[in-house]
Amino acid sequence: AFFASKLEHESKHCNGKGFQRPGSSAFDRVYTANQNCGHAYPTFLAVLWCAGLLCSQAPAAFAGLMYLFVRQKYFVGYLGERTQSTPGYLFGKRIILFLFLMSLAGILNYYLIFFFGSDFEMHIKTITSAISPLLLIP
């Protein structure tokens, strides 16, 4: 909602109609940041859902909240200079990687149970719970 309201605000302040506004760098930055966030959102939802379902819900939820905060930081950084958005982008990639690895660990545990009868679910939950606070380190 924040991204859409910023896009609407910049759209109203620009002269011209439609999305093609030559010379409006503020609108272009807001529009591009909104599109980038929108394109990354389905991937985020997929890995968040898989990590919570297959591995552990609490670290996945924490990483999901951190990702939303980081995307906000990326968006606001994109409104300034483009170099200000880089830390938010890299931080977001790290969170997506963490969620993907959680999903992968859950899938691996499922196949270990299925083929060998070994269940490492408690170990995986302990490790992910211990690693998730490390996501706060920039």
Write a compact overview of the structure shown.
The protein is mostly helical and 138 residues long.
Structural write-up:
The chain is mainly alpha-helical and 138 residues long. The chain has a domain at 1-7 and 25-111: Membrane associated eicosanoid/glutathione metabolism-like domain (Four Helix Bundle (Hemerythrin (Met), subunit A)), CATH 1.20.120.550. 78% of the residues lie in helices and 0% in strands. The protein has helices at residues 2-13, 25-54, 57-79, 86-116, 121-131. Helix 3 packs antiparallel against helix 4. It is elongated. The two termini are 26 Å apart. The model has no long low-confidence stretch (mean pLDDT 82).
Low-confidence stretches: none
What name goes with the CATH superfamily of the domain at 1-7 and 25-111?
A: Membrane associated eicosanoid/glutathione metabolism-like domain
Q: Give the CA-CA distance, first to last residue.
A: 26 Å
Q: How many extended strands?
A: 0
Beta strand %: under 5%
CATH class of the domain at 1-7 and 25-111: Mainly Alpha
- Structural class call reads mainly alpha
CATH-defined fold name of the domain at 1-7 and 25-111? Four Helix Bundle (Hemerythrin (Met), subunit A)
Assembly state (oligomeric)? single chain
Number of H- or I-type helical stretches: 5
User: Mean of the pLDDT scores?
Assistant: 82
Determine Rg (CA atoms, Å).
19 Å
Cα shape: elongated
Order of H and E elements: HHHHH
Per CATH, the architecture of the domain at 1-7 and 25-111 is Up-down Bundle
Can you summarize the main beta sheet?
A: none
Q: Helical residue percent?
A: over 70%
Subcellular location: Endoplasmic reticulum membrane; Nucleus membrane
Subunit structure: Homotrimer. Interacts with LTC4S and ALOX5.
Pfam families: MAPEG (PF01124)
Protein name: Arachidonate 5-lipoxygenase-activating protein
